[in-house]
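Following up on my earlier thread - several people asked me to post the actual chain instead of describing it. Fair enough. Here it is, all 582 residues.
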Amino acid sequence: MIRLPAKSWRNALFVRLIITNLVVILPIILLGVYLYNWSYANASNEISKNTTAQLSYYLEDLDHQIEWLEIQQYDILQDNDLNKLAVTWNLMDNADKKASIDYLLHRFTSIKNSSVYIKDIYVHVRTIQKTISSNNGVDDFNQLSFNYFHNEVDKKEARLILYDHSLHLSAAKYGGKEGDPVFIVQIELNMDKLRESLQQISVYPESGSFLVSNKMGYTLASNGDTSDVLQSSVIGALHAEENTLITQIGDKKYHLDKAYSEPLGLSVITYLPESVVKKPLKGFNNWAWIFALTSCCAIVIYALSTYKFVHKPLLLLVQSFRKMEGGALNIHIDHEKKDEFGYLYNRFNQMIKKLQTLIDQDFKQTMMMQKAELKQLQSQIKPHFLYNSFFILNSLAKTGDLERVQLFTNMLGEYYRFITRNGEDNVLLAEESRHSGMYTEIQKLRFSRRIKVEFDELPESMERIRVPRLIIQPIIENAYEHSLEKMTNEGLLRVSFGMNEEEARIIVENNGDHPITDEQIEALQARLDSKGESGEMTGMINIHRRIVLTYGEGSGLFLSKSELNGLKVEIRIKLEGAGVIV
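Reply from S.P.:
Thanks for posting it. Predicted structure:
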């Protein structure tokens, strides 16, 4: 039993903790009813906010779908075979007629299968007195549908047309300035799929949705068994100025949310019973009192013990972790008791020692390997490139072209100065790009008639990015050695740059005599990502590892098929982390 001195009980930590916690608990009890009402209002507003955003997104997506269908409808209007069929039907033999009909049916079926919102596609061709349907094939000319959609198309009142309790899109093809259309395209929307899409936005129990068009006087309900009273009351909410309102329908209150799309001329309304919103808060008041009483008892029992046996030891551990985060690794926690905190302190001490060992052995070895790989790559000066350079210089000297001799020797000197210089391993991307461009200029003197080079300007926003030296030129050299030099046709090398908020990209791609296959690219990428080295990929593996070590996962070399039918090498540099941009 704990005893406190009579004169000092007011200053005891035990008493102060109890008084402090009672001061915290009593306002919670007094504010219980207010919190209940506030929670209900907040939950209601949050549901309405999310629902309104969801409805707006639904209408935007539906608008995109309708725009896509209108594009398909326009393509059908411009279809050469359909126009030819409508104009030259009487001049065609039976084989040509059948071939044209089969082609149109196949195309209509493909368009229909491309969207779940298409139920059927009709083309009413007046000149041949036929109606072609993706579902029913070729049928007799539907004069009633032709006249109806002809009038609706001429009115141009709305994008969607109500016909036979369904929504349609329609467009007409005229052969001249006046007269009836040559043919009319009619796309019937799948109302079952529209109803299913409405059901997907009604995620709460007993909730539902309506798709409404006041101009057409049309309403589509997500639930087929919706009562007329509920439907008429919900539709009446269209005339309210607010997008969210609460209304009494029968013996229940409902939350109504709506959104309107001006391009479509459609509104979406959802209804949600108020009882669904209040359900999670039904036992709030009772549980609030129970929580307050049990909290007071727990405070009296655990106040001192928690502070003495948990808070103080835990605070010591947290402070030690903060010191470690600040870089201090010479921390040691002493604890004589053999309890759980003694185990944690012992493990913490062992973790500090192990972390120091890992830094000394692993991290330092990694940095040494990175520097060694850079020095190894710098030393890989290809002998045949040096020989070819002297051969070019000799040829230029024989021709007496002293100006080009001077230019070439300057370029060659700058090239070897860059790859052999000692100093910092990282350089500005502007320097690396300039060095790679100089290398391509040297190669252009060798292959000016056979190989074309497109070297884009480096964007100004990328010039100050710091990169490891020699990450672009070896990839260009690899393209020359393994593809461009061996081509019988004209070769093309392209170097381009790109950048967004997350990463910078350097793209090197070339063409080839034979298109590279996906299997070959996968094999090359696997060799690139492997930990071992293999022959001709050693230089690219070196570059890949250095970039990953410097900038982390997501950076490195990524291979794919180029639009030029050759290999495309993309250098990605993540812009996160210190030291990437000066």
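The chain has a mean pLDDT of 78. That should answer part of your original question.
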